[in-house]
């Protein structure tokens, strides 16, 4: 039951939050270099050496949103794959169903951690 609820919540979250982030990115891209730099300062990094407290807070919140969106993507993906297997008629035994439900959560957290550890490692190296 929890996997089904999270599947719906992550789908809605991806559509709403992901769509708003995408529109913000497109608007910033269309508005010019200054608007795009402000967008990057909020969601990823601020290249200026003097970063205000507001920029630090929005920068951390931007990263939290991006990490949350990637977790929601993986959660929705693995849950969808689980439902695809269930649609074939397999996995309805209680032990198997519970195992796959747990693996959906473990897999989404593991995939999110792997992606963001790679991203942060590349950012620190480059």
TrEMBL record:
<keyword id="KW-0408">Iron</keyword>
<feature type="binding site" description="axial binding residue">
    <location>
        <position position="76"/>
    </location>
    <ligand>
        <name>heme</name>
    </ligand>
</feature>
<dbReference type="GO" id="GO:0006099">
    <property type="term" value="P:tricarboxylic acid cycle"/>
</dbReference>
<dbReference type="GO" id="GO:0009055">
    <property type="term" value="F:electron transfer activity"/>
</dbReference>
<dbReference type="Pfam" id="PF01127">
    <property type="entry name" value="Sdh_cyt"/>
</dbReference>
<feature type="transmembrane region" description="Helical">
    <location>
        <begin position="60"/>
        <end position="78"/>
    </location>
</feature>
<keyword id="KW-0812">Transmembrane</keyword>
<dbReference type="GO" id="GO:0046872">
    <property type="term" value="F:metal ion binding"/>
</dbReference>
<keyword id="KW-0479">Metal-binding</keyword>
<comment type="function">
    <text>Membrane-anchoring subunit of succinate dehydrogenase (SDH).</text>
</comment>
<keyword id="KW-0349">Heme</keyword>
<comment type="subunit">
    <text>Part of an enzyme complex containing four subunits: a flavoprotein, an iron-sulfur protein, plus two membrane-anchoring proteins, SdhC and SdhD. The complex can form homotrimers.</text>
</comment>
<comment type="similarity">
    <text>Belongs to the cytochrome b560 family.</text>
</comment>
<dbReference type="InterPro" id="IPR014314">
    <property type="entry name" value="Succ_DH_cytb556"/>
</dbReference>
<feature type="transmembrane region" description="Helical">
    <location>
        <begin position="99"/>
        <end position="121"/>
    </location>
</feature>
<dbReference type="InterPro" id="IPR000701">
    <property type="entry name" value="SuccDH_FuR_B_TM-su"/>
</dbReference>
<feature type="transmembrane region" description="Helical">
    <location>
        <begin position="12"/>
        <end position="31"/>
    </location>
</feature>
<dbReference type="InterPro" id="IPR034804">
    <property type="entry name" value="SQR/QFR_C/D"/>
</dbReference>
<dbReference type="GO" id="GO:0016020">
    <property type="term" value="C:membrane"/>
</dbReference>
<keyword id="KW-0472">Membrane</keyword>
<protein>
    <recommendedName>
        <fullName>Succinate dehydrogenase cytochrome b556 subunit</fullName>
    </recommendedName>
</protein>
<keyword id="KW-1133">Transmembrane helix</keyword>
